[in-house]
User: What shape does this take?
Amino acid sequence: MQYSEKIRDHFLHPRNAGELKDATVIGEAGSLATGDAFRLYLRINSQDVIEEARFQAFGSPTAIATSSALTEMIKGKHVDEAVRLSTRDIAAYLDGVPQERMHAPVMGMEALEDAYAKYRRLETLDEDGQSARIVCRCFNVSHGRIERAIRDHHLSTIAEVTHHTKAGGDCNSCHADIENLLARARAERARAAEEDRIRTARENARKAQPAGGIPDLQRAALIQEVLDREVRPGLAMDGGDMELVSVEGATVRVKLSGHCVSCSSSTATMRYFVEDKLRELVDPAIEVIDITEHGQELHAPPMR
Amino acid sequence: MADLLYFDNNATTPLAPEARAALEPFLGELVGNPSSAHNAGGRILHAVEKAREQVALMLGCETGEIIFNSGGTEGLNTAIENALDALPTRKQIIISKVEHSAVSNVVRPLARKGYRITEINVDRFGRLDLAQLNHEVGHETALIATLWANNETGVVAPVAEIGDMAKRAGAMFVVDAVQCPGKLKLDMRAQAAIDYLAVSGHKFHALPGTGALFVRKGTPYRPLIRGGNQERGRRAGTENVPGIVSMGAAARCINEHLEADIKRQTELRDMLQSGLLAKLDNVIVNGDEQSRLCNTLNVGFEFVEAEAILLMLDAAGVAASSGSACESGSLETSHVLRAMGVPFTAIHGSVRFSLSRYTTAAEVGALVDHTVKIVRRLRELSPFGREKPAPKKPADLETHKAYFATT
Assistant: This one.
């Protein structure tokens, strides 16, 4: 394992090591069984500023170096500021942490968050049931911790998840669970990227128009895109469809077809659902008018 | 690097001065392909055959039973493939749970080709479960492949008994003896059940990239690497002459000094073990102390982590390792120690110290001092380090019981 000089230095000459007798709060993460554990002692003054930080750590050189670095980084900081540090900040402070050892900074942040939660008398982050569920039993890694690592570091493979959390590093039996979390994160990212794209397009369209909002043609194209992506696939599953009839300023006229026409619950619900989507993604001023002539196709939905 | 304290000889060994002296002429002065007809080639061929004699002497076999190759991994790949080819209708392979990857990673994928792979358990001391082996082996067994001495713990397997079981079932027997030369008497005439046995030069003070495979006379054999007629058609490719010559010289050292070397290494290893155990609490020796290589000490320091120990040792100029060098860098704890059921308090803190014939008492003393200092330092850092030591003496146990009885 090739370590940076900073990691070697903090490992061989750890700063702020040892117990702090008059600690205001103690944060903990990891365990003996998993091979890494970290105890963080903080003395916090009445202005919520961390006056003194000390640590005890068990584990790899990176775990010890991370603990040492973290105490240096948070000393003198306001607790709210300290808890906003990220594992990337720790890695950067140490001039890089080997991929395979990224779980050490993750554990450091967990101990800090634990201390913060105790100080603020908050529930710890993993108390909501689902996220506390253990996925990797070899290293005792929770659902929530894996999800957060995937999100924070844009992880896309099981190997990367193992490097950041240790999960899946030993018996491999949780690889399917990790793959599910990765797939969910991928879908989430794709959706976010798509929404970003539409939002950017909307912004650009706004900028291009000096006054009076988006030109109707561009607006219509955007609305059509939102309908195609967000609305019509859902309707198609029930044998229905929605057509964009016209866009005049903020007034959008749509027409339902197929099963939607005969479905009594559809019309009002649909209108509000579509309106919300368009307001969110295109223009908050939009109003949707449903011009379907209900009753016409009542007995004869088209075969699909 | 004169000051380096080298305690990683199970990973690789320094070149013996005798081996260096023997191979030097082949790095310039002496040129020629052993297969060539001219006189120069003939001289080289003579050197290769001299080396073969020494290696055969070391293994207690005929020169005709030695095939020079690139090392242990090639030898084991060749042996396993040949053993399976010899008994094509049998579809079971037996190995142990503590094999080196040069065997386990060759054998396990064969499950996809219809083989049933059986992995025999070991006990807390790393001893093979012979009852399980006896139960598993049968007329379906094509091959038993096992380490003679474990690379991580040094535990020596009862090769004669395993060989008996293999022969009674009519199965082939492949032995990975890579850790053995210079630490154990090898005698293929006495161990008549062994069909193939692999050794590697760099583990006994020869150059890396050179090894030998013993194939018992009369055992089916087909080369794994095909081409020219080298090694009497059994291993193609121009001979690694400097490597082979160095291995011959290294084997000669072993043939001349084996008993003294074993005695000396045993004394120093025991000195290391007792030094560490005397000065540190909560230290576990991993592996069967009754049947262990003379040069190996695998020791678990509870409540500290091995990589941290190793990096601090490295900073102090000491080279040692945890588990197998071939696996370092991965997160997995040692498969050998896991199979043995080493407690989790110690499995993360297990370190292997391996000596050689060149290790001195002064070096062992310095190693003990460094290690004790480092483990104490890390335990000071550790949130678990100051926890009460586990009760050791029966008296303590009674106090403990009394305590729990009253609460």
